[in-house]
Amino acid sequence: MSHAGAQRGFVRTWVLSTDHKVVGIQYLVASASMLLFGGLLAMAMRWQLAWPWTEMPILGKLLFPATGRVISPAFYTSLFTMHGTAMVFFAILPLLTGAFGNFLIPLLVGAPDMAFPRLNAASFWILLFAMGLFLAGFFVEGGAASAGWTSYPPLATLPSAAPGSGSGQTLWLLAIVVSGVASILNALNAVVTVVKMRVPGLTWMRLPLTVWGLFVAAALVLAALPVLTAGGVLQLADRWIGTAFYTPMGLMVNQFAPDAAGATGGVPLLWQHLFWFYSHPAVYVMVLPAMGMVSDILAVNARKPVFGYRPMVWAIVAIAGLGLIVWGHHMFTSGMGLEIGRAFMISTMLIALPSAVKTFNWVATIWGGRIRLTAAMCFVLGFVALFVIGGLSGIWLAATPVDVYLHDTMLVVAHFHYIVFGGTVMAVFGALHHWFPKMTGRALSENLGRVHCAGTFVALNCVFLPMHQLGIAGMIRRTADPNVYALYQHLEPLNRFVTWSAFALMAWQVLFLVNVVWSLRSGTRVGRNPWQGTTLEWEAPSPPGHGNFDRDLVVECGPYEYGDAAGEHDWRPQARGGRPGVDPTASRS
Amino acid sequence: MRHLAAALIVILTAAVIVLFAVSPGQGWWLPPAASTIARPIDALFDGILVTAAVGFVLVMALLTWAVWRGASPRADRARSVHGHLGLELGWTAAIGAVLVTVALAQLPTWAALRDTAAMPAGGATATVLAQQFAWRFGYAGDDGVLGTPDDIEAASELVLPAGEPVLLTLRSRDVIHSFFVPALRVKQDVVPGRAIPLWFTIERPGTYELVCAELCGLGHYAMAGRVRAIPRGEYDAWLAQQSRARLSTGVEDRR
Fold it and tell me: What is the percentage of chain B residues whose pLDDT exceeds 70?
């Protein structure tokens, strides 16, 4: 890649390329930028929750000159709306399916590229366009969308309902629809690549769990995302051409009667069903690839096979399957009937089972291992510990009567941040340390990585653990000022502690940026296989050139041949020898 | 290194236990319960907490030991164990049994909340009308029928009799709101276009804060109300007095 870069110049190498590795890195840079941006929005929210309506020092003058240097109630609603949307749709999902999906799938299945390289590049550029639409919301009259990342009508659909429900909401919807198109194209590419482009000998039951996680997540996107995308188009139709899919009769919203405009007769709950039909599975799209990468990194660094490979595969498939029928648990308080509530409760309890089974398998994987505490390993061990907390707090939320109390409280915020930050983001940091050498030819600093990991682990627990207490005490989410209620006033010290911890967590991430910048220039140069891994990506040069592999590969064993039975060393690569002249696209399981 | 890694997991485990142990004393906990439904809900909450705590400590202990032991310097190789069917089936069955138990344990409480057969017939009823960013309440007037011109209206404070089942009908005139009274452990979204029934029994007289729990716009944070529960006798007197006051001012119902 660097060789070609010298010949072709920066623009053709890094901007116009259709190489899956370049597209993956483009996704990585764009979505990591959104992660940083979403984090900054969260800092502003935490400021407000600790010191409501207080002038923000220095920044207040720059950011909120019109509202007396304080965050206005309207802007606060935009803050959490844009934070949630940025993180889910433009940071975490593209980090996994876009960045790691594109970079890793061809390398792990031994393919020279994705099945449709130009479609692959197109899906990135479409997503980038969606990000532009999303960010443009901050610059229109009324401000950015403010109806929550869930965008419930009629608050979202009627411009009179909220300042951000004007042009800001239209841009938000366009961004979601366009990013939906990008994600569907990307998922299609991932599925076809895994099905059609595995090298000879790489049967389904020899695929690394990273590939399983990415493959099943892509299949889940194909199954569910069209529903949300179509639902978004319906919301746009409500705004643009006077339909009323989501607006019921007889409303009077801020002195505006939709009946008079002739557009009523719809059902607000329809949107909730369409939204959660994808947006709950989206959680699994965000966590299944992470689970796969965690499994692989644990095995490499414990020098021991993944415990229970087949149960792990079936658990991934079961989570995805059940993930399609649990969306109603977001709607237990919507007026849901007795029987349908029971059905969603049972499916939600069931989905906890494969997740818990995976946790026990991870512990069994490292049990009796010869553990190397690389920075990557530290992060994925952190993932396991934090995923357990996020999973256990989910039981409260699956139990319908308890959920009725906890729904829309800070406990829900704690729960999903343990899964998405404690889980997925920790796994992403681990995966970056693990595969950075393959991406760049240089390793990240291990010591700086470990320090970054330890501090992040401590700080994120200080942020999200006390949020459980806030929620149990009944503090609702999306409130701009908890002190309005006497019930929440004694929670102020806890809220301030959370805010200070959040600032520390954010500041600590500078270490990672420093590590990346320093390592790109001065990191240790590595060979093909710095971690003595068994899987196919380590057969390629670091970084791999266009086309990835410089010899034909044939797979002759599973992905986790580590330990005393592995042969001469404590590991046995999946690929040996290689038969010249074999068409890699001709592989069949 | 392994000392630090193991220590971090142990510290996390201890921190979780200590935090949850001190929270009730600090008031960082479920507010004092004031409705009959709160008892089974709180019992479920506690039961799940204890179950989760056992699972948490177990997994953290295993994880700590595996890291501590596994990262100690040793020259020999790990055993190439690929799995164990018995273990796999064992923990699947054990976790499954726990989840089934939790699922079964909460069925009666969910039914008490949502089964329309459990809906009180007769007794006190009131309507709740949510709008950006205020609560309004309606009671039947002298004719005893809701939705007639002699209805009594009140804002901000919902007065209800204590010690008996009450039935509310929730409506919204603009966006989705949510009727949340933490002390009563009830929360019900108020969805425009629908009239949603909600019932509960307040155990003891008192004033309980009413919170809007569903984002309803820029004033969502301030959409506060109160539920005031009073003995039946006082409630009847209050209703009669409200009815007289309405007649004397001649306020028309304009909903």
Answer: 96
Residues of chain B in contact with residue A563, where contact means CB-CB under 8 angstroms, are: 77-81
CB contact under 8 A, B71 and A491: no
Interface of B with A in 45-74 (CB under 8 A): 45, 48-49, 51-52, 55-56, 59-60, 62-63, 66-67, 69-71, 74
Among residues A184, A284, A282, A175, the alpha carbon closest in space to that of A232 is found at: A175
- What is the arithmetic mean of pLDDT over A545-563? 93
All structural domains of chain A, each given as residue ranges with its CATH number in brackets, are: 21-586 (1.20.210.10)
Spatial separation of the C-alpha atoms in residues A331 and B213, rounded to whole Å: 13
With CB atoms and an 8 Å threshold, state whether A303 touches B4: no
pTM of the predicted model as reported, rounded to 2 decimal places: 0.95
- B122-249 adopts what CATH topology? Immunoglobulin-like (2.60.40)
Would you list the DSSP string of A394-462?
HHHHHSHHHHHHHTTBHHHHHHHHIIIIIIIIHHHHHHHHHHHHHHHSBPPPHHHHHHHHHHHHHHHHH
Q: Stretch A504-519: mean pLDDT, rounded?
A: 98
Count CB pairs under 8 A between chains A and B.
329
List, for residues A372-395, the tens digit of each pLDDT value.
999 999 999 999 999 999 999 999
- Domain spans, chain B: 2-70+88-113, 122-249
| ipTM confidence score | 0.95
d(CA B146, CA A299): 67
Question: Taken in order A152, A156, A158, A163, is the CA torsion positive or negative?
Answer: positive
Nearest CA in chain A to B83: A308
Instruction: Judge: B176–A345 Cβ closer than 8 Å, yes or no.
Output: no
The percent of residues above 70 in pLDDT, for chain A, comes to: 97
Q: State the first-to-last Cα distance of chain B, in angstroms, to the nearest integer.
A: 69
Integer Cα distance of A6 and A427 in angstroms: 33
φ/ψ (deg, to 5) at B71: -90, 0
pLDDT in tens, A72-114: 999 999 999 999 999 999 999 999 999 999 999 999 999 999 9
CB contact under 8 A, A481 and B83: no
Is residue A238 pLDDT above 70, yes or no? yes
Residue B209: its chain A contacts at CB < 8 A? 485-487
